[in-house]
Design a protein that fits this description.
150 residues, alpha/beta, four-stranded parallel beta sheet, 4 helices, elongated
């Protein structure tokens, strides 16, 4: 089985950590029969749902500060029967955390679970979906400003 580990940085602000948990929950319940919501309508901001998920279980995890940490999230996926772990750093761009710290934490977690493997996705970067989301946020702000203008 394949598991998805959604990794956030971790924050002292509960709201920031809740976003990672909600993303994991959303990805776990991906409804492949639903159309993609329209950007800016508050129901997913245009996240496509037209393909079946490539994973059997999803867990959130955090690099630092918050729990569960990467080892705990990895272990939770293994307990559900996953032997192949896809780790997605929910980070905007590549840096030391995504190129060094997260792979090191995954390798450490793997030592406690022989027979498992893992791979790491690229951070969000300039993926076309991110660019569309940025455009939608800008359009939303401009519409709000226009509506608030006298």
């Amino acid at each position: 089985m394949r598991g998805l580990l959604v990794i956030g940085h971790g924050s002292r602000r509960a709201e920031a950590n809740a976003t990672v948990v909600e993303l994991a929950r959303t990805l776990a319940g991906a409804d492949t029969d639903s159309p993609a919501p329209a950007p800016g309508d508050g129901s997913g901001d245009g996240v496509p749902t037209g393909t079946p998920p490539a994973w059997d279980a999803v867990e959130p995890a955090f690099l630092e500060i918050a729990r569960p940490d990467i080892a705990e999230g990895y272990a939770a996926l293994v307990r559900t029967g996953c032997s192949e772990i896809v780790a997605h750093p929910f980070f905007l761009f590549d840096g030391n955390h995504t190129s060094r710290d997260i792979p090191d934490a995954l390798a450490a977690a793997q030592t406690d679970h022989p027979g498992t493997s893992w791979t790491v996705t690229q951070p969000l970067g300039l993926h076309p979906g991110v660019v569309r989301a940025v455009q939608a946020r800008i359009e939303d702000a401009l519409h709000q400003a226009a509506a608030a203008a006298p």
